[in-house]
Each structure stands twice: as C-alpha cells, then as structure tokens.
Amino acid sequence: FYKQSKQPGLISLCYKENAIHRDLKPGNICLDEKGIAYVADIGVAKVFDSQSMASKKQIISTSAGTRPWMAPEILNSLKSSDFVEGEFFIGSKLDIFSLGLITLYAVDRDQFLIHKKKLNVDEACLKSYLEDVAKRKVFNDNEFFKILQKMLSFNIEKRISIKDLHTWIVI
C-alpha cells in the first residue's frame, strides 16, 4: 500500500502543501488507472504556513473527521465531559493514525471490518488485533509492520512523525 505503490497525490497534498486533511478514510482516497492515490473531500482540511509545519506546531483547535477513522485523542476529547472547544491537537499526527487504519483496511479488510468500531477507542483491542495480524503474517515486511505499529500508537508523542514516515512513502 505504501512502499510498493506511488502515491504523490495523497502525501503531496497533505504535507508538501502544508495541509492536514483531517478526514482521511478509504472513501476519500481515489486511485487512478496506474494505482496512484489522490485525496478527495478536502472540505475540513487545515492549511498551515510553512513556519508552523517546519516547527511541528500544526495546532488544531477543532475536531473533524469520520469517527471510525479518527485518531483516538480526537475521539476521547469528543466523549469527554470536560472537552473544551478550542482544545489543541498536533495535526499531522492525526492524519498518520488515520493512514495506519487505512493501511490495515487495505491489506486485511475482512478482519479489519470485524474490529473497526473499536480500533481507535480501545487500545487493548487494537493491540490484540495487531498481534493477530502479526501471527497471520499479513505483512511480508517486518520493518514496515513496526512502522505501522508506530503509526497506530495511542500515545501521540510516540506516534511516528511524517518526516520519519516519508522513508516509506514515495512522494
């Protein structure tokens, strides 16, 4: 899905153009006849100046997206009784979590759909599912599987950065 295919549209739009999509999901990724991915529905995207992107301060103060594909910190803030409008999130790492879920969906669709509603709200469920994916050897590339696990970290500070993810994505 990543290393094997070329996706200039997907990553270029979101990161070379200093934008964060905020609603990445399979229905918003279109493939052309060559397998090149393009992002659709950029209605809730957030654009930052290049200084914000360079300093990793892509702060988002509103939530957006489709619940089954959202990062856990967004979902947790939505269901929290102490959620305050204007709570801040680091933007690019929100999209990275969504891309991790999309990758799992692309390579393990049937099993993914069984667990879909719990993967971004229940860390234990996600961990168990990833262990099952590893046992079934869904990914041939162990190193990429480790990257995927970093994409899906519930701890936003430990989640892989877009800079580190670029080594796996052809831009």
Give an overview of the whole structure.
A two-stranded antiparallel ribbon has the order 1-4. It has a two-stranded antiparallel sheet with strand order 2-3. Strands 5-6 form a two-stranded antiparallel sheet. It has 171 residues and is mainly alpha-helical. The chain is 43% helix and 8% strand.
Q: What structural category characterises the helix and strand content?
A: mainly alpha
The largest pleated sheet is described as:
2 strands, antiparallel
How many helical stretches?
Answer: 8
Terminal CA distance: 13 Å
What is the topology?
Blueprint lengths: L7 H9 L2 E2 L8 E3 L5 E3 L6 E2 L2 H5 L4 E2 L11 H8 L9 E2 H17 L1 H7 L7 H13 L6 H10 L10 H4 L6
Antiparallel strand pairs: 1-4, 2-3, 5-6
In a few lines, what is going on in this structure?
This protein is mainly alpha-helical and 171 residues long. It contains eight helices and six strands. Helix 4 (91-107) crosses helix 5.
